[in-house]
Amino acid sequence: MNLDWRGVYAAATTEFFPDEALDLSATTRHFSRLIDGGIHGLVVMGTVGEGTSLELDEKRAVLQAGLEASQGRVPVVTGVAEYTTRGACRWAAEAQRLGADGLMVLPGMVYKSQPHETIQHFRAVARASDLPIMLYNNPVSYGVDMRPEQIAELTDEPTVVAVKESSDDPRRLTDLINLTGNRFVLLGGVDDLALESLLLGAVGWVSGLVNAFPEENRLLWDLATAGRWEEARAVYRWYMPLLHLDTRTTLVQCIKLAAAEVGIGSETVRAPRRPLEGRQREEVLQIIRTALKTRPQRADYQ
């Protein structure tokens, strides 16, 4: 499938039974629900998909579930978040064999690599398959920062075609364009910077809260890309308390709780993550329930 990375890509959750075993049927249903809700692409086993919590056989099964749910309707991209470069290369090659449309590649997990080590990691993974790669820069979560000038060093890798910029600094998008022109497709990766990222040159948005609000994500995207900025800002202001949940350390728990609250997912996470409890859970539920009372309807924006 041709993959141009444009539009709303869901950083999809992985569904578990209450005992934390992989619930493959629920995962497939959830993927299908997101696609039916209007997303442009599916990213499985990223941060929100708890990819680092899955065993290899589970990763194969989740990727195949994404492909089954899509049936060619949208591209299916898998996260590549492994502890070693060798492991990342193995999964990249395996994902190609299984039929993935693209890869979202992270630095090596746990070890905080130096810049030259990080670049070599991405080069090795880029050469392990023929699949197009979205480089995922998230120093806030993973402690490794690929600055624009370092990303520019990868312009000679033909399969590195896109950048998901999640540094929490939208100025990076302008710096990347100034350094590399249109060499990379740029995507925003921080939910509560979605409109800012789009304005500054991103043409895609990898979203977490889309797991609970796929129609609203698509509505916001459609309004913004149509240049209907006043209406887009109105939807964005409604959405913002929810989108802020994407920037918390507990973003996976928050997103899964939101999906469970709207009836399209479970809040079960795999340890060491635990579901939200007590005052923290009540605070997040209040944000979700307040938003549900005033959620926008597409019919109001025809």
What can you see in these coordinates?
This protein is α/β, with parallel strands linked by helices and 302 residues long. It has helices spanning 24-36, 56-70, 85-98, 115-126, 139-142, 148-151, 171-180, 194-199, 214-225, 229-243, 251-261, 278-293, and strands spanning 7-11, 41-44, 76-80, 102-105, 133-137, 160-165, 185-188, 204-207. 44% of the residues lie in helices and 12% in strands. Strands 1-2-3-4-5-6-7-8 form an eight-stranded parallel β-barrel, surrounded by five helices. The model has no long low-confidence stretch (mean pLDDT 97).
Number of helical regions: 12
What is the CA-CA span between the terminal residues?
31 Å
CATH homologous superfamily title: Aldolase class I
Which CATH class? Answer: Alpha Beta
Low-confidence stretches: none
Kindly state the number of beta strands.
Answer: 8
Structural class: alpha/beta
| CATH-assigned fold name | TIM Barrel
Task: Output the radius of gyration.
Answer: 18 Å
Q: Which sheet architecture does the biggest sheet show?
A: 8 strands, parallel, barrel
Overall form: globular
Approximate helicity band: 40-55%
Beta-strand residue fraction: 5-15%
